[in-house]
Design goal:
about 500 residues, alpha/beta, Rossmann fold, 8-stranded mixed sheet, 7-stranded parallel sheet, 20 helices, 15 strands
Length: about 500
């Protein structure tokens, strides 16, 4: 039997002809090239090295009130936006219902979010409802250049491109705020950078803002700090902790996009890999569920005993990062905090450990500590760096510690429709609220509004709600039409 096996192997190795092997080699290398040139390549590639700030560009209407990578990509970007619209039916439905009333007529919204096809649908919805918009990016790597070009072509004053420097980032925000003859009266923020800039640099503008809508943990934390210090002179809506953001965008979006971002950048196989997820909030829960489903061995770190107990009940070992740092293959941060992964942790990691962040800000991994003479940085792919220690050890750092999914891949359109609809309704609510309804504080969305956003998305699943009878409603002490959950839920 052993001899027969050897003969079989000999026959097998004879089978491919030289021509066949060459053509196979060509097809493999070609498909490999194709895979790297798809997906995110149109946002990575640049036709020249000239900074967009140095270019003189105009759209087809002769306007130059924007700054994007290449206005000629507008047609391509328009197709991207049209694809996104197909899976954002609830937001489009809101646009159609309300565009006759123009509830945002007179609103001058300055925004700072990820500029993707999905947020473009939101921006164009706000314009259709009567608002004037000026927009910048909240992340230097997440802008889809062709989408920014499409927005600029449509007349939106957008200042953003993929790969901005830190100076570019703040310059873009400033160009949105500091303009003669245009006074912002609403802010839509993701991360708090825009709010912070206006508060610090343009206090007179800040005092005239009618409302702020913020959707990230980091930005909301900053708002609560301002409020506690008595320095928040405008009402703000905390969208991050609304049910339609927290329970959907944070959980389901991350459950699907964490794997996408890691696969595109590293081609890693998760089966049997040891992964530590820092933080077991909704983002951490989504990441852990996806990794566990693919056979990874998942550890969790937590500071909150309630979240830690949830992780235990879900079958994950709760540990300190220092206890497992030498053995894990992947480290993912999801906390919204700072210095969760320190230089000491990075020094102790095994060779080829992948390090990435799923929180909003770039503070969770101490990347600054890695920019020292004894370490060598080697760019391997777009948003993939090998940081090499003197002994040859390599750590694979993704997106320089910034948000993995939007920097390295894309996110599910449908779940972003839920957040975008919530943001639009929050802006409408704050802008149209009678004087005195909202004081100078941070508010959660009314639960009725959360439920309305959810109901708009149910038809996509052909879902049919059960209605309470009068007797059942009386028994529960509820209105038949909701809200069904208390405000603290």
């Amino acid at each position: 039997q052993q001899i027969q096996f050897a003969d079989d192997m000999q026959e097998f190795t004879k089978f491919p002809t030289k021509t066949g092997r060459r053509s196979l080699s060509r097809s493999i290398s070609q498909s490999s090239t194709d895979s790297y040139s798809s997906a995110a390549s149109y946002t990575d590639s640049s036709d020249d090295e000239v900074s967009p700030r140095e270019k003189q560009q105009t759209n087809s209407k002769g306007s130059s009130n924007f700054c994007v990578k290449n206005i000629k990509q507008a047609e391509f970007g328009r197709r991207e936006i049209e694809i996104a619209e197909q899976d954002m039916s609830a937001l489009i439905s809101l646009r159609k219902r309300a565009q006759g009333e123009k509830p945002l007529a007179g609103a001058k919204i300055v925004g700072c979010t990820h500029i993707t096809a999905q947020t473009a649908v939101l921006i164009e919805t706000l314009c259709a409802l009567g608002a004037q918009c000026r927009w910048s990016a909240c992340n230097i790597y997440s802008t889809q250049n062709e989408v920014a070009a499409a927005l600029a072509e449509a007349g939106v004053a957008v200042f953003a491109w993929k790969g901005e420097s830190e100076d570019d980032f703040w310059w873009c925000i400033d160009r949105c705020v500091n303009i003669d003859g245009w006074q912002a009266n609403m802010i839509l923020d993701d991360g708090g950078d825009l709010t912070h800039w206006v508060y610090k640099k343009y206090p007179n503008v800040f005092k005239k803002i009618r409302g702020i809508v913020e959707e990230s943990v980091t930005g909301v934390h900053r708002l609560y700090q301002l409020s506690k210090a008595g320095k928040l002179c405008v009402p703000a809506m905390n969208v991050n902790d609304s049910v339609t953001k927290q329970k959907f965008d944070n959980l389901y979006c991350c459950r699907e996009s964490i794997l996408d971002g890691l696969k595109r950048t590293t081609d890693v196989m998760f089966g049997g890999k040891q992964v530590v997820v820092c933080g077991y909030g909704e983002v951490g829960k989504g990441c852990c569920a996806a990794l566990k489903a693919l056979g990874a061995i998942v550890y969790v770190t937590e500071i909150d005993p309630i979240c830690a107990l949830q992780a235990c009940m879900d079958g994950f070992r709760v540990v300190k990062l220092s206890e497992v740092i030498r053995q894990v293959d992947v480290v993912i941060t999801c906390t919204g905090n700072k210095n969760v992964v320190t230089r000491e942790h990075l020094d102790r990691m095994k060779n080829s450990c992948i390090v990435c962040n799923m929180g909003h800000s770039n503070t969770e991994i101490d990347v600054t500590s890695l920019r020292t003479p004894e370490l060598t940085w080697e760019r391997v792919r777009s948003q993939v760096d090998h940081v090499i220690w003197p002994d040859g050890k390599r750590v694979v750092l993704l997106a320089e510690g910034r948000l993995l999914n939007l920097s390295c891949s894309t996110v599910p359109t449908f779940v972003l429709s839920i957040t975008a609809t919530t943001q639009a309704l929050a802006l409408i609510e704050l802008y149209n609220a009678p004087e005195g309804r909202y004081k100078q504080d941070v508010y959660l969305l009314p639960k009725k509004m959360d439920e309305y956003v959810a109901s708009l998305h149910l038809p996509s699943f052909d879902a049919h709600l059960t209605e309470l009878t009068d007797d059942q409603a009386k028994y529960l002490g509820l209105n038949k039409n909701g809200p069904f959950k208390p405000n603290y839920y």
